[in-house]
Amino acid sequence: LFLIIASIIIVWAQKTGRDLRKISEVKAEHFCRGPYCYTRIPTQWGLFLLMLGFGIIANAFFVILFTIISFFAVKFLFMKKHDKILIEKYGDAYVEYKKLVKF
C-alpha cells in the first residue's frame, strides 16, 4: 500500500511541479496546486513512503530506521537551504505560500 501511494504522490508532484515553469509572473496561488496545497515537499514524502514500504516488505529494521532518520535530517537540516533558494528565486510569492502551507 505504501509503495502504491508513494508512487502516485511522486508522479502527481512531478507533473504538478512542471506546470509552474510555464508561468511568467508567479504568485502564491500558483504554488498551491495538486499535492503542493497540502505539503511543500510532496516528492520527499513520496520517497519517504516508498522507502518505508520497501523496508516493511523486506522486513528490514535498519532500512526503516535509517529511512525515518534521513527523512527528519532532510526535513530539519536541508529544507532551510531549499526554502532560501526558493525565496531568492520567487520572492514574496513563495513567502506567502510558505505561510499558507506549513507542512
Structure described in brief:
By secondary structure, this protein is mainly α. It has 5 helices and no strands. Helix content is 76%, strand content 0%.
Please describe what this structure looks like:
The chain has 103 residues and is mostly helical. 76% of the residues lie in helices and 0% in strands. The chain is built from 5 helices and no strands. The protein has helices spanning 2-20, 28-31, 42-57, 61-90, 92-100. The protein is globular and about 50 Å long. The chain starts with a helix and ends with a helix.
Give a quick set of tags describing it.
mainly alpha; 103 residues
Task: Describe the secondary structure blueprint for this structure.
Layout: H1 2-20, H2 28-31, H3 42-57, H4 61-90, H5 92-100
Helix pairs in contact: 1-3, 3-4
* Global morphology: globular
Write the H/E string, N to C. HHHHH
The Rg value, from CA coordinates, equals 15 Å
Instruction: Indicate the proportion of strand residues.
Output: under 5%
* Residue-averaged pLDDT: 86
In oligomeric terms, what are we looking at?
Answer: single chain
The parts where pLDDT drops under 50 for at least 5 residues are none
Amount of helix: over 70%
The largest pleated sheet is described as: none
Helix/strand-derived category reads mainly alpha
Number of helices: 5
The end-to-end distance, rounded to whole angstroms, is 22 Å
Number of strands: 0
